[in-house]
Amino acid sequence: MDVIISGFMIFINKFLGQAPLLLGSIVFIGYLLLGKKWYEALQGFIKTFVGFKILQVGTGGLVRTFRPIITNLSAKYGIDAFVIDPYFGQTSATEFLNTSNSLSFVGYVMLIAFIWNIILVAFRKQTKIRALFITGHIMYQQSAVLLWALYWVIEGTTGEPVSTALTVAVGLFLGTYWSVGSNLIIEPTQEVSEGSGFTVGHQQMFTTFLTYHLSKKIGNSDSDVNTINAPGFLSIFNDNIVANALIMTMFVGSIMVFIGAESFDYNRDKYFFATYIWETCAYFAVYITIVLTGVRLFVTELTNSFHGISNKLLKGAVPAVDCPVVFGFSPQGPMYGFIFGFFGQLIGILMLVAIGSPILLIAGFICLFFDNGTLAVYANKAGGRRAAAIIPFICGLIQVFGSAWVLQYLVGPPEVIGWMGMMDWATFFAGTTVLSSYLGIIVPIGLIPILLVIPQLQYRRYKETYFTTMRDQ
User: Fold this and answer.
1) Is residue 39 in a domain?
2) Nearest to residue 427, comparing CAs of 461, 404, 453, 457?
3) Which residue among 90, 99, 142, 375 is least enclosed by CB atoms within 10 Å?
4) Which range marks the domain in which residue 329 is found?
5) Are 132 and 320 in contact (CB under 8 A)?
6) Considering the entire predicted model, what is its pTM?
7) Domain total in the chain
8) Is residue 239 part of a domain?
9) How far apart (Å, rounded) are the C-alpha atoms in residues 244 and 23?
10) Residue 247 is assigned to a structural domain of this protein
11) CA 394/CA 344 separation, integer angstroms
C-alpha cells in the first residue's frame, strides 16, 4: 500500500504538477491519435514544452520585476500585513498543513479532483461537461489552499491530521469547480480567441463568465482597447510594445519615485535612478512580448492536437489551460486590467485602514496582472475600453474586501501569511470557507450537485453547437 501511495505522489508531483510536461504529453498523444508519425508527434511535444517554458519565463519575469516594488513600498511605510497573492496563499497552506502532518493529503485532493474531472467529461452526454482542466500548477495550488482553508475551519483546531472524509469531499468539490468553471466560459473564450477551441482553467472562471456578460451592458465592444488610433506624436501608443513600455514607466515609475531611490538595491555605479526606473519598467514590455511569443507557439500545437483527444478518447472535450493564452488576442487588455485593478485594490486597502480593520492587506502582482488582466480581455471583447476599465477596478475592490473577510476566519497560525486573492477565491471560495466554519463539511458536499446544474442550463442555451465548442460557426 505504501508503494502505491508513494507512486501516486511521484506521479502527481513530477507529472500532473508540471504543466509543460503534462501539456506536451497531451499534444504528443493527440497527434498520435490523429494518425501523425511518431516524429511529428515528438515535434509537437517539443514545441509545446518549449512554448510553455517561454510563457513561464515571461510570467516569472513579470512577477520578479514588480514584486520587489510592492515589497519595498510595504517595508518603507512599515506595513505588516497579509499578501493577496496565490503563492503567498499556497505557502500559507503548505506550511500550515505540514505542521499537522497533512501536507501529503494535498496530492490526494488533486488526484481525486482530476479523476473526477475526467469522469465528468467521459460521461459528457449526461453531465454536459466538456472541459478538461490541465493547468497543472494551478491544480496543485488550489488543492493546497482549499484543503488548508476547509481543514482549519472544520477540523483544524483538533490538532489531528486531515480526515479521509474531508480529503474526499474537498477533492470532489474542487474537481467539480474545475469542470463546471472551465466549461462555463467555453463560449465566451471562443469569442475572445476567435474560435481557437480551448478554454481557460485558472482562478477566476466564474468571475470571467459574469464579466463577459455584464460588460455587454456597461460598454460598447466597438471601442476596442487594441484599436486606439491616437493623433500626432501619440500615435506611438498604437504600437503595443511601445505603449506597454511607456505607460508602465509612467505608472510604475511614479510608484518607484514615491518610494525613493534609497529603498532599491541597484548598481549605483552603473545607473542613475531615472535610468534604473526606465530599464525596470521597460522589462514589462519585454516580458509581455515573451509571454505572447510562448502563447502563440504552444496554443497552436495544443488546439490542433487536441482534436485527437476529443475525437478518439473524450469526444467533445475542450482543454482548459492557463489564463495568459488569451493575452495574445488583446495585447493591451492586460495592461488595462493591471492599472485599473491596482487603483481598485489601492482604494480598498486605504478603506480597510480608514475603518480600522483588524486585517490589513498588501496587493499582489499576480492578482493585479493575471487576474484583472484576464478579466479585462473578456470585458474588452464584450464591452470595449469602458468595460475593460470599470470591471477590473470593481474587481480590485472585491479582491481586497473578500480576502479580508475570509482571512478573519483563517488567521491565528503563524504560518498564515496571505490568501489567494484571485476573484473566485475572494468571492466563491471565501464564502464557502466562511459558511463551512458554521455548517461544516456539508457545505462543500452540498455545493457539488448545485454546481452540476450549471452545465445543464448551459446546454439548453447552446444546444445546437454545444459539443462542437462553436468551432463550426
Assistant:
1) no
2) 404
3) 99
4) 63-465
5) yes
6) 0.81
7) 1
8) yes
9) 29
10) yes
11) 6
